[in-house]
Amino acid sequence: MKMEKLFVYTDGRAQNDPGEAGIGIAITDKDGNVIEEIAHLIGRSTSRIARYRAMIEAARAALAYSPKSVIFFSDDQQLVNHINGVFVTREPHVKHLLEILRGILDNLPQWRVNFIDHYINRQASHLVERAFRDNTRARLSREHLEMRLLAHVAMLDDAQLEQLIEAAKDLEQRT
């Protein structure tokens, strides 16, 4: 789907910094209609690196719409300054992320990155929170299933446990 102009809001955050990190991206059209929302965890990271990774994923997602123009927004002034060339970083891992990002941005006909207040960027921030909530729900659901399985396993005799082990092996081989 081709789009004339996109507005892309990004955020990233780590719990316990460093810790489990998530990103949130909201892509809207020129009228403010949400076209795509991205919210997921990216593994262990710092909040700073999570925000760079969010911008990289946002650029990739925007590129898929073949827009003529994209305006990216972040509430991380340092990130915005690095991308716009106002400041240069000496940190090799940040330089590497910036090189990846610029490589993607070079494929867009026209783009810019603007700093915005955190309050204005709340849509992306809420998406980061959603990524953490969704992960917690999935983990709790799995723990509930494991508890149910253990309750049933506790009532089995040795022969039934052997049958259960064989059935589990069969399931593993099918996937």
Describe this structure in words.
The chain is an alpha/beta fold. The chain is elongated and about 70 Å long. The protein has helices spanning 47-63, 77-83, 92-105, 122-153, 158-174; strands at residues 5-14, 19-29, 34-45, 69-74, 111-115. The mean pLDDT is 93. The protein has one domain (5-139): Ribonuclease H-like superfamily/Ribonuclease H (Nucleotidyltransferase, domain 5, 2-Layer Sandwich), CATH 3.30.420. The chain has a five-stranded mixed beta sheet. A hairpin with a 4-residue loop joins strand 1 (5-14) and strand 2 (19-29). It is built from five helices and five strands, in the order E-E-E-H-E-H-H-E-H-H. Helix content is 50%, strand content 25%.
Span between termini:
34 Å
The gross shape turns out to be: elongated
CATH superfamily: Ribonuclease H-like superfamily/Ribonuclease H
Strand content is: 25-35%
Low-confidence stretches: none
Summing up helix and strand content along with how strands pair, one would put the structural category as alpha/beta
Helix residue percentage: 40-55%
Number of helices: 5
- Elements, N to C (H/E): EEEHEHHEHH
CATH architecture: 2-Layer Sandwich
What is the radius of gyration? 22 Å
The biggest beta sheet is recorded as: 5 strands, mixed
Give the spatial strand order of the biggest sheet.
3-2-1-4-5
CATH class: Alpha Beta
Number of domains: 1
Give the beta-strand count. 5
Topology-level CATH name: Nucleotidyltransferase, domain 5
* Mean pLDDT over the full residue set: 93
